[in-house]
Amino acid sequence: MKRTELSHVTHTARQYINGRWQTGVTTGSSENPSDTSEVVAEYARADRSQTEAAIRAAADAFPHWRRTTPQRRADVLDQIGSEILARKDQLGLLLAREEGKTLPEAIAEAARAGHIFKFFAGEALRVGGESMDSVRPDVLVDVTREPVGVVGLIAPWNFPLAIPAWKIAPALAYGNTVVFKPSELVPACGWALAEIIARATLPAGTFNLVMGSGREVGQTIVESPLVDALSFTGSVATGERVLQAASARRAKVQLEMGGKNPLVVLADADLDRAVDCAVQGAYFSAGQRCTASSRLIVEASVHDAFVVRLRHRLAALHIGHALERGVDIGPVVNGEQLAQNLEWMTIARDEGAEHVYGGEALQRATTGHFMSPALFLAKPQHRVAREEIFGPIACVLQADDYEHALHLANDTPFGLCAGICTTSLKYAMHFRRHAEVGMTMVNLPTAGIDFHVPFGGRKGSSYGPREQGRYAAEFYTSIKTGYMMA
Ligand code: UN1
Fold first, then answer.
1. 375-397 pLDDT, tens per residue?
2. Active-site residues: which are they?
3. Of 7, 26, 341, 408, which one is least surrounded by beta carbons within 10 A?
């Protein structure tokens, strides 16, 4: 294992409020899920009043930031993007230590965050509108976009750089001011991002970082009348609460929540490719992605061959310390998640799903939350085939034919993404049209998406306008229609 000095350092992560680094009311710590003896960060935790101070700072900064020129906003975002890209190895190392993603995956995520800032630097210069003739004589009509105001951004732990980036970058690009709360499991990643943003010399209050519990910090952001828009990525249960609170006070809201994404494998698929898609989509990042393919829906005639090959591939995967070279899957994020995953193993067995492989807690040289990837043969009504697990556990459902596979794919309360492996253009095209999801993938894993196109789902997975790409403007701006006598 390659060990550098940086791979052991404990960071002191402070909050960034109104242009100043601040300690919190309490402190917390984050640990390395690959080696729980290692403290990654001691971080400042806010209470309600410190969170309110950050919100007020953002509200005070808004009138100025909204009037900055697109060039100024583009320069700021470009600078942030450049610094992230220049430091992607270091940021990736921090991410791998704090979240447990393998180092190559973590570095790729850091790079993704940099590219997102660069993309929105360009978008800041391209905020356009429409102009048209009125239905009345001699009247002009135009449609313009304006920033929404203060946006509260609540991010999860599983993409601790990319998801904050795809919320913060468009928020700033379109002239909003930000209160950002990272997950308590990954405060150092949130702080590292904030440090880079702080160096871009934004006016005080334009960007604020507050850390702490969802119950105190998150709830204060969600309920504050000064927060005009809320973007949340996380669990369905929390998302529901955010939605209730936001709609009660009519704040604009965007939610990205769970998934139980299908990967359909048809009889005519390139089976090696299909197994690759399943391994990558279901198990990489320890299955801790809302885009994970946790339901593998396989046509009967290739079912057994697919399961044999997949089982073989799973047995060959290396599970271990996220910084170790050659490791395919790191630990799961914490002890609670591991216990929950192991509980799912019991649930699946008890309800009659057939256990094919894995699902054991693993011992390694360091004490970490390691588990082997698990595979079940399930029935559509099994909980293991219906509920989001957020771990390296997937199940195979057998389908009689394409129509049955499509029916199974859509038979879920979720609708984030859906994949199909086939060599038939007819089925690929039909699936793209009829899958009840926000994103479809043909002969590709369901997880691992591009940063410059819309991201989001339907049904129970998402609420509100899409994130990412040019569509991010729908959430981060408000439309104004202007009429003028010519
Ligand atoms: C990806 O699959 O590349 O929480 C991104 C998640 C998603 C992001 C997935 N919001 O897993």
1. 999 999 999 999 999 999 999 99
2. 256, 290
3. 26
